[in-house]
Amino acid sequence: MSARYADVIGPLRTAYDGGAGRRDGSGKQAWKLAERAAFLERVREGGGRRLLEVGAGTGQDSAFFQANGLDVVAVDLSPEMVARCREKGVDAHVMDFLHLDFAPGSFDAVYAMNCLLHVPDEDLPAVLDAIHALLRPGGLLYVGVYGGGTLRGEGPYDGDDHDPPRFFSFRTDEELQAFTSGSFQTVDFHAVGVDALRFQSLTLRG
Q1: SS3 for 90?
Q2: 26, 75, 162, 164: least CB-packed within 10 angstroms?
């Protein structure tokens, strides 16, 4: 029987609550900063102002977008992560991907960095549809996840340093783009890194 999102939310929340302090103190690799900056420029070029970050973690990216002139809202399923976002002055809420309590078409852009890889394949289409509904027509979605390299399949990741170990779904480039093509048009796709550290970057238009 395949995993379902409702079953993995609880353990994910516990894992991220416990790791919030450590994650907040860690820096970001240069390539992640570049990904973030490139998406900001695309949003600006399209006249976007209001951005939702899903799976926002401790709010480092949300704070960046806010400091650069965007009207930002952040959501995460971890109350500890949301508290860290709020400490940075970000409007943040505890929500999961299937219960995003915002009006349809209320955002110009959505940013999803390393969070949709926690959604089982069975529920990913519904999550993408939920995100699509929140975007204004022509709005942009950034999806960044590890995958397409040596990591395959669904389940806990061996060597995960979180307690309890987190659920992951690693997808090939073709699988990931097949999922996103149901609701979005691809603006850009590229990969960064190789093997277990290979990262898939997609900018999508609703």
Answers
A1: coil
A2: 26
- Between the alpha carbon of residue 196 and those of residues 63, 101, 141, 191, the distances in Å are 29, 34, 24, 12
For 89-117, letters b (16+ CB in 10 Å) and e give ebebeebbbeebeeeeeebbbbbbbebbb
Read off the pTM: 0.97
Q: Distance between CA 185 and CA 3 in Å, rounded?
A: 27
For residue 33, the Cα-to-chain-centroid distance in whole angstroms is: 15
Q: How far apart are the first and last CA of the chain?
A: 32
**d(C-alpha 142, C-alpha 140), whole Å:** 7
Q: In 3-state terms, what secondary structure has residue 152? A: coil
Structural contact between residues 62 and 72, judged by C-beta atoms closer than 8 angstroms = yes
DSSP type of residue 196: G
Instruction: Give, as one character, the DSSP assignment of residue 117.
Output: G
The tens digit of pLDDT for each residue in 22-78 reads 888 888 999 999 999 999 999 999 999 999 999 999 999 999 999 999 999 999 999
The CA distance from 27 to 53, in Å, is 18
Contact between 187 and 161 under an 8 Å Cβ cutoff? The reply is: no
